[in-house]
Design goal:
Elements (H helix, E strand, L loop, with lengths): L1 H68 L2 H25 L1
Length: 97
């Protein structure tokens, strides 16, 4: 009778050990999943910034070609828009500071 009790006790002990190992493995798996999701977010943000960089380079190239052509009216309009935008942003931000 005590032999069966001892085996049952050993089984329960091993079951508890196995349960703790499974819990640890589950925690590692969740951490790996979270890390992979964060890497995906980082990759997506890198792609967005890369696209934005390419867009800015293209716009700068078009502005350079426009300036080389000597279209003075378009250059003055663009300069006015840029100055107006800076003044508007300064005015809006001065409300919050």
């Amino acid at each position: 009778m005590s032999d069966a009790y001892e085996r049952e006790s050993q089984n329960n002990s091993r079951l508890d050990e196995l349960s703790s190992k499974v819990s640890a493995l589950r925690g590692v798996t969740v951490n790996i999943y979270d890390n992979a999701r964060q890497q995906d977010i980082i990759d997506n943000s890198n792609e967005v910034f890369s696209n934005m960089s390419n867009s800015i380079k293209g716009s700068a190239g078009r502005l350079g070609r426009m300036a080389q052509q000597g279209n003075k009216v378009a250059i003055l309009k663009l300069a006015g828009i840029m100055v107006g935008t800076v003044i508007l942003l300064w005015w809006i931000l001065s409300w919050f500071w």
